[in-house]
Specification:
The complex is a heterodimer. By secondary structure, chain A is mainly α. Chain A has one domain. In chain A, about 40% of the residues are buried. Chain B is α/β, with parallel strands linked by helices. Helix content of chain B is about 20%, strand content about 20%. Chain B has eleven helices and 18 strands. In chain B, helix 1 runs parallel beside helix 7 and helix 5 crosses helix 11. The chains are: A mainly alpha, B alpha/beta. At the A-B interface, helix 1, helix 4, helix 7, helix 8 and helix 9 of A face helix 2, strand 11, strand 13 and helix 9 of B. Strand 1 of chain A pairs antiparallel with strand 11 of chain B, so a sheet runs across the interface. Chain A: It holds the Pfam family Gluconate_2-dh3. Chain A: InterPro entries: Gluconate_2DH_su3, TAT_signal.
Chain lengths: ~210, ~550
C-alpha cells in the first residue's frame, strides 16, 4: 500500500485541518505527521468504509442522521492518527501481548487495523459483507465484552465515534440542543419527556 | 526618567497597578512578555462551535503531548483556549529531583486574567493570623482590617456576584446579586446546614457579573461558561475587559508587549532601582528603561525569577534578598477531587444555561476549636451539581437506537466536591535559578523544589471523609473520592517567594508590599504572600496591589521614595 494507491482518502480534509492548526498554534505543521503516525499507511477505502459502518451501527439514523452519515468514521481515523482518547499511549504488560500483531514499533496500537481484524475474526468472514442484523450482533458482543473489561481498545474507538457524532453540527445541534449564548440561567426547571440534553453544557461534557 | 512607574506584567495584578498608578496621575509603562491580545477582536475562537474546529474542540492530542504537556492538564485548556496558554516546549522550567510541579502559565497581554477561574473570596483574620497561631512561616504584618477597604474597592470595580452569608471566615463583600443554586445544590445546602450548622454551602463568589456596567462597556454574564476563550461581552473580569481600558483612558499608559524583563538595575548608593532591563523577544535586542518606582506583577514565580536574576556586586544573591529568604516558602493549595456522588431524586429537574461558577463550602475546621485531624489550618470545597450529557455514553455499554435515545436525554445528576487545603509555608519549598540552562531569550531557567507535607495530606484525608459524609447525608451515593493532592501547581494558586513580614531579616517585603531593601520596588502579585489560606487568592492580590499603589503614590508625593 502506497500513498499513490490511496486516492480515495480525502487528504485535503487532513490538510485543511493541518492548516487551521498551524494558524491556531502559530507553529509549522509537518503534513506527514498530521497524516499518519510512525510510517502508518494512509487509511484505505476499506478501513474508511468499515469505520463509517461501525459508527453508523453505534449511532444509527433515526429522526436524525447517524454517526456514519455525519462523517464520524473519518473523524475517528483523524483522531486516532493524532492520539485522542489515549490512542498513542504505548501498551504494556498483558495488553502488549494480547495485541502484539497490531503494535507499532513504539508500542502503540494500530486501532483501525485491530478493529478490522477483530470484527472479521468474530464474523468468521468479512464483517462488512454480513447483513445488518449480524453485523449489529457481532458489534454488540464486542461492545459488551469491552465495557466489562478494564482496558479495551474498542473503548477508545467507540468514544471517538461519540465525540465525532455529538460534536458534529447534526449530532450537537439537531439530535441534542446547542446554545452558544444562553443569555440566562434557569436553575430549576421541570424536565419534560421531550427535553433533549445540551451538547453546549461544557461542564457536563467535561464531568458528566 | 522615562516614566514615573514601570509595571512588569499585565495580568490580574499588573492591570490593577497600571490602573491605580495612572489614575493617580503617574506616567506608567506596562511591560508584557507575551503577545498583544486585543479585547473582543482577538478572541478568535470565542464564537466557534465544535464542528468548526479541526479537532472538534478536543484538540490535537499529539501536539498537546509534544508542546503543551503541562498546560494540557489544566481543565480550562482545550482546542478553543490553547492559544491562551504557553507552549511548554518553548518555555521550559527546571524541577528538583523529587519535585512534581505543574506550572500553568499564560504569557500574553492580560496574562492569566483571561484564563483564571474567577473565584473571589476574602481572606479573614483566621488567614492573616494563621502563621502566628501555629508557628509556621512568618507572621503577616497586616490583618483583615488593613485590607477590608481595598477588598471593597476591588470588588466594586471588577464586579463580583455572590451571596452574603455573614461568615467570619469568609467575609461578605460588595457583591452583585448572586447566581442561583440549582435544585440539587439547594437541597444539599439545606441538608448540610441542618446537620452541621457551621458548614455553609453557597454559590461561588465569582468575577462574572450579574449586572452590567454600561459605563465601562461591560455586559452582564450570558451564561455560556466558556470564559477562557475570552469574553467580548466583558462579563468577567480580565485586564482587557476592566483595568486596561481604565488605565488607557487616563492617557498616561504605555504598553510594550513581546518584551521579557531580564533584571532590575540597582544603585547601592541610593538603594534604588535605576533601570529595568528587558529583551525584545522578537529581535532579541536588549533595552533598559527607567522610572521612579517599579511594580513587579509578573506572576509569583516570574517576579521572584527577576529578583533572583538581578544580581550585582552589592546583591550577589539577588535583589531585595538581604534576608536570604527570597524564593523560599512557596505554596500552592493542596487540591484533590474529594468526592463524586450520584444524586438520586432529582430526575424530574433540569436547568437552562451554563452558570460560570460552582459552589463553595466555606472552611469550618480549626476556627474557634482546633478540630483538624493532624493539621492546624483550613480546607474548603468547591464543586457543584451537574446533569450528565452525551459524554456519559463513554462509560456505558450499548449501541443502536436505544443507546442513542438514552444519550439524547439529560442524564443523572452528580455532585462533585473538590477540596482545597491550606498549604503550610516551608523554607524547603523554594525557587532558585538553574544557571546551567537558559531559555530562548538567554535567561536562566527557574527551578522549582516543592513537596506537600503531612499537614496537607492530613487535611485532604479529613476533607475526603467530610465530603463523603456530607453528600451521603444529602441522599447522594458516593462513587469515588481521593485524598492525595495533585502535584504542586495543580490548584494554579502558586504563591510566595517574596514574603511579606515585619522583620527585614526574615522577609522580603514590608506591609506595603514594598521591598525592605529597595524603597522604590513593590511586588504585589502572588509572590508577596506569607501564607496561603484555603481561598482562591487573586482577589487578595488585587486588593494588596491597590493598597500598595496608594501607599507608593503617597510616598512619592511625600518625597520618601
Amino acid at each position: 500500500m502506497t500513498a499513490a494507491s490511496s486516492k480515495g482518502w480525502k487528504r485535503r480534509d487532513f490538510l485543511a485541518g493541518a492548516t487551521l492548526l498551524a494558524v491556531a498554534a502559530a507553529t509549522p505543521v509537518d503534513a506527514a505527521t498530521v497524516l499518519r503516525k510512525g510510517g502508518d499507511r494512509l487509511p484505505t477505502p476499506a478501513i474508511r468504509a468499515l469505520m463509517k459502518d461501525v459508527a453508523q451501527l453505534v449511532i444509527p439514523r433515526t429522526k436524525t442522521a447517524g454517526a456514519g452519515d455525519v462523517g464520524a468514521g473519518d473523524f475517528v481515523l483523524l483522531a486516532l492518527a493524532h492520539g485522542l482518547e489515549g490512542a498513542h499511549r504505548p501498551l504494556t504488560g498483558e495488553a502488549a501481548t494480547t495485541y502484539k500483531l497490531f503494535l507499532r514499533a513504539d508500542g502503540t496500537l494500530r486501532h483501525a487495523d485491530w478493529l478490522q481484524a477483530e470484527l472479521n475474526r468474530r464474523a468468521g468472514t468479512r464483517f462488512i459483507a454480513l447483513p445488518l442484523a449480524k453485523r449489529r450482533a457481532v458489534l454488540v458482543a464486542l461492545d459488551t465484552e469491552a465495557f466489562a473489561a478494564r482496558d479495551h481498545p474498542w473503548k477508545a474507538i467507540k468514544n471517538l465515534i461519540l465525540t465525532g457524532y455529538y460534536t458534529s453540527e447534526i449530532g450537537g445541534s439537531k439530535e441534542l440542543n446547542y446554545e452558544l449564548v444562553p443569555g440566562r440561567f434557569d436553575p430549576d426547571l421541570p424536565l419534560k419527556p421531550t427535553d433533549r440534553a445540551f451538547s453546549s453544557d461544557w461542564s457536563a461534557v467535561d464531568f458528566g | 526618567m522615562d516614566f514615573d512607574a514601570i509595571v512588569v506584567g499585565s495580568g490580574i495584578t499588573g492591570g490593577w497597578a497600571a490602573k491605580e498608578l495612572t489614575q493617580a496621575g503617574l506616567k506608567v509603562l506596562m511591560i508584557e512578555r507575551g503577545r498583544d491580545i486585543r479585547h473582543a477582536q482577538d478572541y478568535t475562537t470565542e464564537m466557534k462551535a465544535p464542528w468548526e474546529m479541526p479537532f472538534r474542540g478536543e484538540g490535537d492530542a499529539d501536539l498537546f503531548a509534544r508542546d503543551y504537556p503541562v498546560q494540557a492538564l489544566n481543565r480550562h485548556f482545550t482546542e478553543f483556549t490553547q492559544n491562551h496558554f504557553v507552549n511548554d516546549a518553548q518555555n521550559p522550567y527546571a524541577k528538583g529531583e523529587d519535585t512534581a510541579f505543574t506550572w500553568f502559565r499564560s504569557y500574553q497581554l492580560g496574562g492569566r486574567s483571561l484564563t483564571w477561574g474567577r473565584q473571589c473570596y476574602r481572606w479573614s483574620d483566621y488567614d492573616f493570623g494563621a502563621n502566628k497561631r501555629d508557628g509556621h512561616g512568618t507572621d503577616w504584618p497586616i490583618r483583615y482590617a488593613d485590607i477590608a477597604p481595598w477588598y471593597d474597592k476591588v470588588e466594586s470595580f471588577i464586579g463580583v456576584s455572590g451571596a452574603k452569608e455573614g461568615l467570619t471566615q469568609l467575609p461578605d463583600g460588595q457583591f452583585q446579586p448572586p447566581m442561583a443554586l440549582n435544585a440539587v445544590e439547594q437541597h444539599v445546602r439545606k441538608e448540610i446546614l441542618s446537620r452541621w450548622p457551621e458548614r455553609c454551602l453557597t454559590v461561588g463568589r465569582t468575577a462574572n457579573m450579574t449586572e452590567a456596567k454600561p459605563d465601562e462597556g461591560r455586559a452582564a454574564c450570558q451564561y455560556r461558561s466558556i470564559c477562557a476563550r475570552g469574553c467580548s461581552f466583558g462579563a468577567y473580569f480580565s485586564t482587557q475587559s476592566s483595568t486596561l481600558p481604565a488605565a488607557q483612558k487616563t492617557g498616561r499608559l504605555t504598553v510594550i508587549t513581546d518584551a521579557v524583563v531580564e533584571a532590575l538595575d540597582y544603585d547601592p548608593a541610593t538603594r534604588r532601582i535605576t533601570g529595568v532591563r528587558y529583551v525584545d523577544t522578537k529581535t532579541k535586542r536588549r533595552r533598559t528603561v527607567t522610572s521612579r518606582i517599579v511594580f513587579l506583577n509578573a506572576g509569583a514565580f516570574n517576579s521572584v525569577q527577576i529578583l533572583l536574576n538581578s544580581t550585582s556586586a552589592a546583591n550577589p544573591n539577588g535583589l531585595a534578598n538581604s534576608s536570604g529568604v527570597l524564593g523560599t516558602h512557596i505554596m500552592d493549595h493542596a487540591n484533590t477531587l474529594s468526592a463524586v456522588a450520584i444524586m438520586p431524586g432529582f430526575e424530574g429537574h433540569t436547568s437552562f444555561g451554563n452558570r460560570p461558577t460552582g459552589v463553595v463550602v466555606a472552611r469550618y475546621r480549626n476556627m474557634e476549636r482546633m478540630d483538624g485531624a493532624g493539621h492546624t489550618r483550613g480546607y474548603s470545597f468547591q464543586g457543584g451539581a451537574l446533569q450528565s450529557t452525551w459524554t456519559q455514553g463513554k462509560r456505558m455499554a450499548g449501541i443502536g437506537e436505544d443507546y442513542k435515545a438514552t444519550l439524547q436525554k439529560p442524564g443523572p445528576w452528580r455532585m462533585v466536591l473538590v477540596g482545597f487545603a491550606d498549604c503550610v509555608p516551608r523554607a524547603t519549598n523554594r525557587l532558585t535559578l538553574d544557571r546551567s540552562k537558559t531559555d530562548a531569550n538567554g535567561l536562566p531557567l527557574l527551578k522549582v523544589d516543592f513537596a506537600f507535607g503531612k499537614e496537607e495530606h492530613a487535611a485532604l484525608a479529613q476533607a475526603k471523609a467530610d465530603a463523603a459524609e456530607m453528600l451521603t447525608a444529602a441522599g447522594g451515593k458516593v462513587i469515588m473520592g481521593l485524598d492525595r493532592p495533585g502535584p504542586g501547581g495543580t490548584a494554579i494558586h502558586e504563591m510566595g517567594g517574596a514574603r511579606m513580614g515585619a522583620d527585614p531579616a526574615t522577609s522580603v517585603l514590608n506591609k506595603w508590599s514594598q521591598a525592605h531593601d529597595v524603597p522604590n520596588l513593590f511586588v504585589t502579585d502572588g509572590a508577596q504572600m506569607s501564607s496561603s489560606a484555603c481561598q482562591n487568592p487573586s482577589l487578595t492580590y488585587m486588593a494588596l496591589t491597590a493598597r500598595a499603589c496608594d501607599a507608593a503614590v503617597r510616598m512619592l508625593r511625600e518625597g520618601k521614595i
